[in-house]
Design brief:
- Helices cover about 35% and strands about 30% of the residues.
- It has one domain: Alpha-Beta Plaits (2-Layer Sandwich).
- The chain has a 4-stranded antiparallel β-sheet with strand order 2-3-1-4.
- The protein contains 3 helices and 4 strands; from the N terminus they run βαββααβ.
Length: about 100
């Protein structure tokens, strides 16, 4: 039996106002931060296949975190704070981010 931390996953659904601005002002800066924290974007698409419920965004992604503790710490970190605020308050109309502990 091991004491290794379980990975965590972030499920992202956002509605980006302007894709070009989103890439320029957010994504190109956030990917290096994700790398530094050991976080991987394992899936991302503007056209997910919705099977149940409704998809209200124009971008969906799945992030893999080393652990739930890393996910929570990254989300509240000084590294990510300015980009989180930019994403929420300027670059998207709506969105959701859910953290789920893996197995």
């Amino acid at each position: 039996m091991t004491n290794a931390a379980k990975p965590a996953y972030g499920m992202v659904q956002i509605n980006i106002k302007n894709s070009e601005q989103f890439m320029e002002r957010y994504a190109q800066h956030v990917f290096p931060i994700l790398d530094a924290w050991g976080i991987e974007m394992i899936a991302g698409s503007p056209t997910p296949s919705t099977k149940e419920g409704s998809f209200n965004g124009n971008w969906a992604a799945v992030l893999r975190f080393p652990s739930m503790a890393v996910a929570e710490a990254w989300y509240d970190s000084a590294d990510y704070e300015p980009y989180k605020n930019l994403r929420i308050n300027e670059l998207t109309d709506s969105g959701s981010l859910v953290f789920v502990e893996g197995r």
